[in-house]
């Protein structure tokens, strides 16, 4: 706190300056830096990755939570996500899965758009080409991760160890498994924990809900995307960095060139369908 003497010495020029100082201090006191912007369901994730309320958090650039936008699938660039992700586009992916796939009837366009209401910046930032590239990139990864929306749960997932015991903020719960689930195959306790906080479910005690609830499942994919991939593709860094953000430790830098090639193939295919070029930096 500043003493009255100190304040006098600072010789503020107008009442507006006093107000600005007060407002800045008030906002600063409310800042909550979140790992991966894992905000609770009642807070907005700002463009800078902070959790809070008010226009600075829920206004322009809001990435998730109760953003002020009343039209989450539209933005000033004129792109409507629903016009891009048409029935034909979505079902063109999902229909390639076999009829006995667990994802049949789980991954639906309706559930995707219900989940999208919480992520107003998806597919609506930058130019119209940027928007289409982001949509193509997201669904390219979904296609690869789920086998054209066939799989909900990771193959042999329960046999894997996805508990990072060094992470004390989101400690593993005994008997719970944090293997890949959902469109992006959310994995690890340090992702389930903050995803649950942001979306509104207990990710550590009930990770299985990502495989039971289709809307929550899509929300986890969008949550991960908005916090780790969105700015990469919309800033023009290219598709390659999104591969690194999703599974780079295993696939990139020569780790598994075949899977990288498949992701690029899907991305290129979807860009062609949406009438946009792929941009540069496709690989990792």
Automatic annotation (TrEMBL):
Cell location: Vacuole
A GO CC annotation given for this chain: vacuole
One Pfam family linked to the record: Glyco_hydro_19
Stored SUPFAM superfamilies: Lysozyme-like, Plant lectins/antimicrobial peptides
Active site per the UniProt annotation: 145
Gene Ontology terms, MF aspect: chitin binding; endochitinase activity
Disulfide bonds: 39-51, 44-58, 101-150, 163-172, 252-284
Domain Chitin-binding type-1: 34-69
Signal peptide start-end: 1-34
Gene3D superfamilies for this protein: 1.10.530.10, Endochitinase, domain 2, Endochitinase-like
Enzyme Commission code(s) on record: 3.2.1.14
GO biological process, one term: chitin catabolic process
Keywords: Carbohydrate metabolism, Chitin degradation, Chitin-binding, Disulfide bond, Glycosidase, Hydrolase, Plant defense, Polysaccharide degradation, Signal, Vacuole
Cited SMART domains: ChtBD1 (SM00270)
Catalytic activity reported: Random endo-hydrolysis of N-acetyl-beta-D-glucosaminide (1->4)-beta-linkages in chitin and chitodextrins
Function: Defense against chitin-containing fungal pathogens.
Record family assignment: Belongs to the glycosyl hydrolase 19 family. Chitinase class I subfamily.
Name of this protein: chitinase
Species, as recorded: Solanum stoloniferum
